[in-house]
């Protein structure tokens, strides 16, 4: 089959061409150069296959080296040129798409194997020639002597000209011969090398199996072995090598010598160590990064019985403000200073500090007594941050929040530990920051549940998991039902029915409160219209109104007014049948832009109620500028009225608020009415409407119609 242009076969042919051109001048052969190329082509194919094989097989390299000797490539420069050609062109033309670094490493090992095979074949050839010389000594003693001398000269040329280090020793470890490359690698003289037995070249970084393999080889139990080995140079530096040691046997098969081939890999190893350092350390601060921290944490959590760990998760308070006001360069300098201080806090054995990213750092301590040590570590960190950091002439006060997790090894995984520390850190930040908190399983569970609810909110609205209950609003003068407050509930698949206090803050935080609030308003307005239609046939007097709560996020949404108008028009409900409740705290210090949509709704006829009045410490004079028509008095003012007699101070306060509200033409609604005595006292004080469990708990919309019907029929 004909190969594609520039395909693997073409590239293999190019390599064989280059190889033949390099070696042919140094080869004693009667072949022409093209014939010699055809001779090398199968050897090139074997090298190519060995380079790309799944597992490395040194026998392929040794076989190629031996075949070179069989092809009469025994001139002094033949092996040297072959090794140079393999080093420069084998990966280039035969490597394919594999990782270049791995391919070059394998090519170097093939060179070593070729040299070993070449040396062994040349040695065997020499022995054969010597034997032939012995048999023909009487006939051609002079010719044999010259042939032996030429053979030894060729072997010496190969031995000295090789780019890799070659050494020969006897089985007792006495070095007999070394080439120049090996002497240059070690930086020693041949005399000092020969005076040092092989077993003396031990190094502290030797793998345990290195000398076991050596002992097996010199005993004749192993033909060769390959390993990575370090050697100590006389100048104190370390030489790292790829070492291949082969056993050389005599003509009768008895072990006689050991042949060592060494490739200097020091620079490659230093590069790998540098790359490893850069991959496991933060470029800005020099601290260990997330990768190295997780390695250490996994090791700590895998400790044996009696071992514990302690983790401090630190997040700087207000770091974003520094970045935004002074720039990222100043922020980076602050992080470097903080990293230096943290590093000085974790100097004991088993302690480390790492930067996870941004302004988040972790400190880890391990050992049997981390319950006390982790608190000490947190104290040292907080004390280290007390001193201001001076940057560009400014003294910056550094504050931080720390979450602490401590426990026995083997019970939790790294991800779970870090999640608990993160949750605890945010609990410290929520408590005001500049402090540390210790992890609590119940607090973690609440935070995880809260996160789960947050992520489930959008889908819950799409799946229709929300529903509305209505709590009646009763007129204190005649006891009639005048309307109801709409209260949204979440029927969660796992947690059951959840009240608004469980999910409304989450909806406000995520922005889902706007579509959720629009849905509540639409459902409530439609329900109010249905009540009115049913009232039309019952003889009931007065239309039932609906109160709907607005969150601060909804107040600032630009579509509030238009959404309300559209919902009222689609339902066919008059605006005066709708009351929007806004908490007092949302309107404290409100400017005209915030009040403008409320004023427009009020001008349309929609009532605005000021909810939780009395909890926001607002100036009562501000009531004149707010577009409200109803005050909803917070239940904290009327709790004492559940018993008789009521606290006279509370009575005076409520009486004053009611009087002020009525003077401003505002109606007063009271929340949390639970007893008849409480309702009667509020009636006497002049309150207009009330709601609470005394009248009815929140329930389905049908019950409100039934209550209104009972009031209408007396």
From TrEMBL:
Organism, scientific name: Streptomyces gottesmaniae
Protein name: EAL domain-containing protein
Domain GGDEF: 307-441
Domain called EAL: residue spans: 450-712
PANTHER family named among the record's database cross-references: BIOFILM ARCHITECTURE MAINTENANCE PROTEIN MBAA, DIGUANYLATE CYCLASE DGCP
Domain of life, source organism: Bacteria
Residue ranges annotated for the PAC domain, each copy included: 225-277
InterPro entries xref list: Biofilm_reg_signaling, EAL_dom, EAL_sf, GGDEF_dom, Nucleotide_cyclase, PAC, PAS, PAS-assoc_C
Domain PAS, first and last residues per copy: 151-221
């Amino acid at each position: 089959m004909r190969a594609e242009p520039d395909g693997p076969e073409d590239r293999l042919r190019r390599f064989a061409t280059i190889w033949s051109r390099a070696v042919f001048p140094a080869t004693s052969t009667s072949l022409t150069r093209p014939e010699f190329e055809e001779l090398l082509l199968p050897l090139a194919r074997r090298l190519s296959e060995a380079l790309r094989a799944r597992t490395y097989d040194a026998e392929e390299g040794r076989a190629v080296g031996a075949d070179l000797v069989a092809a009469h490539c025994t001139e002094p420069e033949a092996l040297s040129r072959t090794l140079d050609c393999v080093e420069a062109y084998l990966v280039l033309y035969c490597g394919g798409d594999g990782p270049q670094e791995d391919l070059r490493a394998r090519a170097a090992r093939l060179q070593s194997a070729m040299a070993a095979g070449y040396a062994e074949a040349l040695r065997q050839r020499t022995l054969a020639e010597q034997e032939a010389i012995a048999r023909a000594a009487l006939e051609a003693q002079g010719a044999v002597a010259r042939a032996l001398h030429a053979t030894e000269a060729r072997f010496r040329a190969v031995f000295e000209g090789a780019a890799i280090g070659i050494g020969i020793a006897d089985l007792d470890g006495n070095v007999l011969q070394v080439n120049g490359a090996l002497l240059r690698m070690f930086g020693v003289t041949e005399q000092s090398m020969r005076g040092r037995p092989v077993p003396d070249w031990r190094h502290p970084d030797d793998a345990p199996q290195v000398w076991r393999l050596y002992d097996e080889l010199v005993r004749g139990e192993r033909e060769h072995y390959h390993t990575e080995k370090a050697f100590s140079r006389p100048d104190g530096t370390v030489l790292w090598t790829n070492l291949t040691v082969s056993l050389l046997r005599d003509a009768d098969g008895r072990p006689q010598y050991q042949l060592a081939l060494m490739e200097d890999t020091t620079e490659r190893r230093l590069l790998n160590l540098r790359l490893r350092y850069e991959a496991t350390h933060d470029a800005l601060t020099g601290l260990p990064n997330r990768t190295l921290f997780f390695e250490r944490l996994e090791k700590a959590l895998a400790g044996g019985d009696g071992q514990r760990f302690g983790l401090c998760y630190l997040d700087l308070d207000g770091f974003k403000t520094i970045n935004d006001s002074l720039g990222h360069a100043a922020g980076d300098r602050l992080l470097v200073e903080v990293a230096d201080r943290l590093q000085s806090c974790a100097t004991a054995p088993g302690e480390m500090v790492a930067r996870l990213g941004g302004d988040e750092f972790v400190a880890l301590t391990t050992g049997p007594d981390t319950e006390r040590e982790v608190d000490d570590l947190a104290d040292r960190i907080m004390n280290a941050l007390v001193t201001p950091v001076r940057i560009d002439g400014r003294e910056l006060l550094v504050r931080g929040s720390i979450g602490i997790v401590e426990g026995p090894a083997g019970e939790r995984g790294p991800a779970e530990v870090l999640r608990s520390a993160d949750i605890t850190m945010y609990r410290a930040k929520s408590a005001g920051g500049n402090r540390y908190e210790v992890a609590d399983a119940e607090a973690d569970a609440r935070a995880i549940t809260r996160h789960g609810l947050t992520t489930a909110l959008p889908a819950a609205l799409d799946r229709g998991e929300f529903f509305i209950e209505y709590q009646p609003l009763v007129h204190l003068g005649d006891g009639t039902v005048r309307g109801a407050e709409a209260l949204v509930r979440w029927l969660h698949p796992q947690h059951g029915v959840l009240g608004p206090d469980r999910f409304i803050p989450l909806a406000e935080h995520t922005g889902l409160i706007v579509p959720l609030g629009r849905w509540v308003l639409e459902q409530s307005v439609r329900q109010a219209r249905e009540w009115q239609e049913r009232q039309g046939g019952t003889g009931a007097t007065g239309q039932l109104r609906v109160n709907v709560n607005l969150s601060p996020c909804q107040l600032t949404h630009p579509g509030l007014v238009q959404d309300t108008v559209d919902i009222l028009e689609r339902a066919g409900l008059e605006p005066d049948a709708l009351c929007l409740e806004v908490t007092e705290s949302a309107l404290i210090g409100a400017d005209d832009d915030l009040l403008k949509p409320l004023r427009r709704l009020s001008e349309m006829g929609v009532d605005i109620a000021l909810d939780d009045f009395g909890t926001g410490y607002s100036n009562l004079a501000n009531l004149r500028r707010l577009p409200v028509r109803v005050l909803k008095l917070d239940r904290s003012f009327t709790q004492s009225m559940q018993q008789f007699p009521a606290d006279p101070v509370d009575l005076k306060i409520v009486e004053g608020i009611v009087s002020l509200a009525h003077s401003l033409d505002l109606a007063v609604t009271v929340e949390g009415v639970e007893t008849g005595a409480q309702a009667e006292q509020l009636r006497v004080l002049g309150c207009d409407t009330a709601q609470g469990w005394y009248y009815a708990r929140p329930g389905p919309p049908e019950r409100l119609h039934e209550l209104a019907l009972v009031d209408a029929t007396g």
